[in-house]
Amino acid sequence: MKAIICAAGKGVRLGANFPKILLEFGGRTLLEWHALRLREVGVQDVVLVTGHLRAQIARFLPAISARHELGIRELVNQRFQEGSALTLATALPEIEGGREPILLMDADVLYPSQMLEQLIRCRAPTALLLDREYSTNDDDPVLVPVKAGRPFEFRKKWTGQADLVGESIGFFKIAPEDLPMLIDETTRRSAGKEISDSYDDVLRALVLADRFGYEDVTGIPWTEIDFPNDLPHARDVVLPAIQRLS
């Protein structure tokens, strides 16, 4: 199984002067935490799509690849300041013709390996992770409402009736039979001179086409790192909770 980590964005809301994937928690960068977690669940083939300040990231790759016995290939989205659909488009050569499921992963998440285990083992061939214990106080999460066991929407500010609603973690398993639709949507949305679509728009198209199942990971410690106050929360609350699971 191949993992594609999207790490091209600028992280404007965080206000850091270096890529978010190089934030350190417990003496490891998020990049190394990804490598460790992927290795723990048996994934050895990793594609990292970079853009903003990519040279800073590239310096870490050889050592992390060797330390965790991972094949890490960097692809560069030169148009990283435009819509993130272009980041996914940059990875299309690694997706086209795939005969195994792939993992699509946001770069700015701190999490335990249990999350990836659940996603990989999910009975649904194409699946996403959601957490029912979400807050909209200081963020605008991508919400995933579920009815009759299937996600039926995937967007921010969703309101309506559902059996349950959760926040998307930002990790997805895409089955080989759904890769052509992923490729088609990505290609269509990344065409033109100025792109505003995100790769969430691509994933939403698959959700609306009823391609996704889901895994509920409510109760498993994790956090996305978007804002300055996410840093102490990740360091002082989430990381100790993750370490207690080991």
Structure description:
Helices cover 32% and strands 25% of the residues. By secondary structure, the chain is of the alpha/beta class. It starts with a strand and ends with a helix. The protein has one domain (2-245): Spore Coat Polysaccharide Biosynthesis Protein SpsA, Chain A (Alpha-Beta Complex), CATH 3.90.550.10. It contains nine helices and 14 strands. The longest helix has 16 residues, at 230-245. It is globular and about 45 Å long.
Topology record:
Blueprint: E1 2-7, E2 24-25, E3 28-29, H1 30-40, E4 45-50, H2 54-58, H3 61-67, E5 71-76, H4 85-90, H5 92-95, E6 102-106, E7 109-110, H6 113-121, E8 127-131, E9 142-147, E10 150-151, E11 155-156, E12 164-174, H7 179-189, H8 199-208, E13 213-216, E14 223-224, H9 230-245
Parallel strand pairs: 1-4, 1-6, 4-5, 8-13
Antiparallel strand pairs: 2-3, 6-12, 7-14, 8-12, 9-10, 9-11, 9-12
Helix pairs in contact: 7-8
Q: Can you count the helices?
A: 9
Q: Ranges with pLDDT <50 over ≥5 residues?
A: none
Q: Kindly give the count of domains.
A: 1
Shape: globular
CATH superfamily: Spore Coat Polysaccharide Biosynthesis Protein SpsA, Chain A
